[in-house]
Amino acid sequence: MFEISPTTRLRRSPFFEATVKEGVTGFYPYNQMLMPTGFGDPEAEYWRLLNGVSLWDVGVERQVELTGRDAARLAQILSPRDLTKCAEGQGKYVALCNHAGTVINDPILLKLDDRRFWFSIADSNILFWSRAIAAERGLDVTIVEPDVSPLAVQGPKAEDVVAAVFGDWVRELKYFWFREVEIEGIPLMLARSGWSKQGGFELYLMDGTRGTDLWNIVREAGSPWDIGPGNPNSCERIESGLLSWGGDTDDGTNPFEVRMGRYVDLDVPDDVVGIGALRRIKAEGPARHQLGIVLDGDAPQPSHATWYDILQNGRKVGDMTNGVWSRRLERNIGFALISQACSPGESVELAKDGNQISAKLTDLPYF
Amino acid sequence: MFEISPTTRLRRSPFFEATVKEGVTGFYPYNQMLMPTGFGDPEAEYWRLLNGVSLWDVGVERQVELTGRDAARLAQILSPRDLTKCAEGQGKYVALCNHAGTVINDPILLKLDDRRFWFSIADSNILFWSRAIAAERGLDVTIVEPDVSPLAVQGPKAEDVVAAVFGDWVRELKYFWFREVEIEGIPLMLARSGWSKQGGFELYLMDGTRGTDLWNIVREAGSPWDIGPGNPNSCERIESGLLSWGGDTDDGTNPFEVRMGRYVDLDVPDDVVGIGALRRIKAEGPARHQLGIVLDGDAPQPSHATWYDILQNGRKVGDMTNGVWSRRLERNIGFALISQACSPGESVELAKDGNQISAKLTDLPYF
């Protein structure tokens, strides 16, 4: 692969120095920042997440903060999900959509209080988007990207580590709920959350000068559980059926096509962006759905940087959006964004670099 | 530096394969795509641009296409510059601003006809932005990112090369004007343009499957002039005073602060986004301006990935946003985004990695 060149358009996370000290080997860009992608031992990093506890710099999950009299109203206008029952200290997974009903991001919305919300975003510019909608509607709300950078602690032993640092109360914290805490003078928001299905927490660091300190506190507290560095793991997340916005979606993907229909409430007010389009799409039936795809053969294929066509009877029926060698299934698996006419169990062909590989469609998730 | 990891969130340019064959050594991300950053011989690449002709993959300069009855109206609403005299086949450099008057991109606007425009954008999401404004205002316009990827031919001998391929008429083409042409069945828009001050053209490839073909046509036609690969050159662009949006600007930079005031017309209609804020800022006077900064000493400093504080009398007065070793001046030079109270000729200190380096403020451009 190629070197990533320095540029001031690509920001570093507060945990950058800590990850360099841990031996980070690669990055990719995410929200105009550098996101670690590995520490030199992919196999150990995978099993550490599955069986132990792993520490991830996910500072690239930026917050878009809404503050002011109309903050709650704007949060709802941007989210086609009923937020009326969202409590202070609670988070909700939402499918932000544009006016055509296309998913433009899939953040966690955190309700700090009635006048203050964070969208903890995936890889697209929601700062510009939300400012455009707020200003065009004349809302009384301030929108900024605050100095808040999550550090994830993930894996079955994450709870023990986080409890060792912050106390046993964290064991009672419900999924996507959070609480403001402080450790050695470092302010943070502690949430049960994270982009894996192995359980864990995200520590939303609220002082960018203290990244290395926070990393080291968790690193040291975790040593009895053999904590080590990691990052969002493409094998685990595909096995677990977790969506990567922008990787598994395109410029016409609606929430119903990518298993997000359960997070859409069609009876939200008419002023919610995209709700008219979503009602129409739901009534007409979306064109595609997201399935699993398992390739024939047991030779690991490298991770890919482009979508591949999926064919049935010689005709294109969809795309394989991401694929990976599954360490648990010992098969190459992936996500198919594919015609509703295709169902789990059916055989298809994958057109890859001039070859055709036989494959079978499956349900999601794999685990 | 670090490896850039493969991800389907990071797209390749149609010229990717050609640049790999040319020996590209690094990339950085730009508009969610890979942009080549060098071919292994920075000194030769610099002088080739200054004295010869250089071929650049700038496919990352994506187009945001506005089509339809209200396309012209939306182009004006998004641009605080009078477009009434913009002719078909003409381009204009514009400072897109948000409602607060902050620059959110600095594209070239190309008027294809009365109902069709391209914003040829810098590194931020103007597709989402323009869709938000258009939908909120109920405009009849379709907004897409078309299959259009520029290839730049830059340097004093670029005109000879482009004339050899397309004919001598290109010598008469005015700056930022363009014309639709075809070469060996490849459709493209040919413009006199490019992100250097050495002269040249951009070939807006309109068929992404023909990238290697177009690269090779220009490469072969250019061999009598010793054409070679290159990319937007940070040394040349800083010497020439060219702005890098997002690299030299922050979330509060208005056009007057970065020498774009001449592209702002305060008498555009009141419905232009940000015009109210821009009138206020102009009346009150912007807080900062952009100057050059020349560091003492003659040891080349590496290019940097963060801004550095500029101090005067021990107090922070601004930031050095980008800096480079100037091969022509044989000094480390850069851009200062600095208080209006500071003027060219004054001495300052640069706080860099724990050291203070004496420096002098200068006018821009350097050449």
Number of strands of chain A: 22
How do the strands line up in the largest sheet of chain A?
13-14-15-12-4-16
List SSEs of chain A in N-to-C order: EHEEHEEHEEEEEHEEHEEEHEHHEEEEEE
SS element count, helices of chain A: 8
Rg from Cα of chain A: 21 Å
Uncertain regions of chain A: pLDDT < 50 for 5+ in a row? none
Major sheet details of chain A: 6 strands, mixed
Distance between the termini of chain A: 31 Å
CATH class term of the domain at 16-62 and 148-237 in chain A: Alpha Beta
What is the global morphology of chain A? globular
What CATH calls the topology of the domain at 16-62 and 148-237 in chain A is Gyrase A, domain 2
How would you name the oligomeric state of the polypeptide chains in this document?
homodimer
Largest interface: A-B, 54 and 54 residues
Helix content of chain A: 10-25%
The overall pLDDT of chain A, averaged over residues, is 97
- The CATH superfamily of the domain at 16-62 and 148-237 in chain A appears as Probable tRNA modification gtpase trme, domain 1
**How big a fraction of the residues of chain A is strand?**
25-35%
Furnish the topology, listing elements before pairings.
The structure is a homodimer of 367-residue chains.
Chain A lengths: L2 E2 L11 H6 L4 E5 L2 E6 L3 H10 L2 E4 L5 E5 L3 H8 L12 E3 L2 E2 L5 E3 L2 E6 L2 E5 L5 H11 L5 E3 L4 E6 L3 H9 L11 E6 L2 E7 L7 E6 L5 H11 L6 E3 L3 H6 L35 H10 L3 E8 L12 E5 L2 E12 L4 E9 L7 E6 L2 E8 L5
Parallel strand pairs in A: 4-16
Antiparallel strand pairs in A: 2-3, 4-12, 5-10, 5-11, 6-9, 7-8, 9-10, 12-15, 13-14, 14-15, 17-20, 17-22, 18-19, 18-21, 19-20, 21-22
